[in-house]
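# nightly structure sweep
# worker-07 picked up a monomer target from the shared queue
# config: single-sequence mode, recycle default, output format = structure tokens
# input follows
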Amino acid sequence: MLKINVAFNYKLTGLIIAGLLFVYSAHTNANDAVQMYTQCATCHGDKGQGNELLKAPVLAGQSAEYIARQLNNFSSGIRGSHEKDTLGKQMLAFSQSLDKEKDVPVLSKYIESLPSVSQSQDTAGDLKNGSRYYQAKCGACHSGNAQGNPSFKAPKLAGQSVDYLRRQMQNFVTGIRGTHAEDKLGRQMAMMAKTTSGQELEDILHFIAQQK
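# output follows
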């Protein structure tokens, strides 16, 4: 009986220690994430709401997988290395300061945990045409209400700054983004971006701005 009790106590102690280590690790990761995000908040806002004056996009509402992929793309020069991508170069420098194995997953999960933000945007366009064009050219990947689709690795567009979306479309068209040999998804977007422009694009952006 004594041997059984001793063995049981050892197992119980081991479980308690493992539980405490798990809690400590989770708490440490949470603190690390908050500390890392303070660097992001300078441009992207304390709640990931973005900052149009700084041309920084909304981060809240995006998946950890998408955030991690973009950080790694910046870090490796897949994105942000074009000579005309001034804003991208800023992100490239920050991303290269992160540890891909440790920092990026923790920071990405933290950003994913930020609740989506609701913002009104002053856009103009034909909503009916915008919906029709969007469903024909964007909806298959980004989903019907621009909520994104992890299966296609397509980010959420709803709630994003229209100015940011317009700028990225222009970057895809002009080759500032989406031309790197390792950027398969970027090349797909570059191809699609070239199929719309002018008022049609403005109608699409107007439709996206109405999605919550």
